[in-house]
Design brief:
Elements: H1 17-27, E1 36-41, H2 48-61, E2 64-69, H3 86-91, E3 103-106, H4 113-123, E4 131-137, H5 141-149, E5 156-162, E6 164-165, E7 172-173, H6 182-200, H7 210-220
Parallel strand pairs: 1-2, 1-4, 2-3, 4-5
Antiparallel strand pairs: 6-7
Helix pairs in contact: 1-6, 1-7
Length: about 220
């Protein structure tokens, strides 16, 4: 079992209204889903059936030439272990026979967002694709977008941010209410720490968000 480089749910500082606004703009990416050459699905170790059903619905509504599912076997502390890759678990819930015109590709080695893109790029030259739509967890959607931009510098992007359920009342983590729950605050704060750690070391380009990072840093200074 692997230890996470950054805790999944660290304890955040006290969040002011201004800090909430900046963290929302930093972590959440929104560009309405539309038809594209490729639907890129980032790995997830939860919600496979729900994500699969959502993909089915989008395939019925929009046009995608290729669906690229990513994600290897999740083996992190705090994660539910399955001896099957995330992408293959997800594929079980997609009605492939209903979409014979779609090319389904499975990447099953990656263990994180950066590897999702790196290993997927070995299967499909992402830099050659003009229009990409992507699925990712809502709170990680900006980082997912920027990681794609590491290899897709000239592409047009749209996305569907997957809301994560936070409690038995079916409350979900979205850009509008993440700060209302302890889990939501922890997950978004963890994303900020990933921007600082992964972005600064070059896992993804951060030019688009450097201004936000500086503003957040200033607010956090004593």
């Amino acid at each position: 079992m692997n230890a996470r480089e950054i805790l999944k749910q660290p304890t955040p500082p006290k969040l002011t209204t201004e800090l909430i606004h900046l963290l929302t703009n930093l972590c959440f990416f929104n560009s309405s889903m539309k038809s594209a050459d490729l639907l890129f699905v980032f790995g997830s170790n939860i919600l496979h059936q729900a994500i699969g059903e959502k993909i089915n619905n989008f395939l019925r509504t929009y046009s995608f030439n290729t669906v690229l599912l990513t994600g290897g076997i999740a083996n992190y502390k705090e994660s539910y272990y399955e001896p099957v890759s995330e992408s293959e678990l997800l594929l079980r819930h997609i009605a492939k026979s209903e979409f014979p015109q779609v090319n389904f590709i499975v990447e099953n080695k990656s263990r994180n967002t950066l590897e999702n893109v790196i290993y997927a790029n070995e299967l499909v030259d992402l830099s050659s694709i003009q229009n990409i739509a992507f699925f990712s967890h809502s709170y990680a959607s900006k980082r997912s977008y920027l990681t794609l931009k590491k290899v897709c510098t000239t592409n047009s992007f749209s996305n569907f941010p997957i809301p994560i359920p936070v409690n038995l009342r079916d409350q979900e983590i979205t850009q509008f209410d993440w700060f209302e729950t302890e889990k939501g605050r922890a997950l978004v704060w963890s994303e900020y720490l990933r921007f600082i750690t992964y972005g600064k070391r070059g896992d993804f380009p951060i030019e688009e968000v450097e201004g936000l990072l500086e503003q957040i840093k200033t607010l956090l200074e004593p």
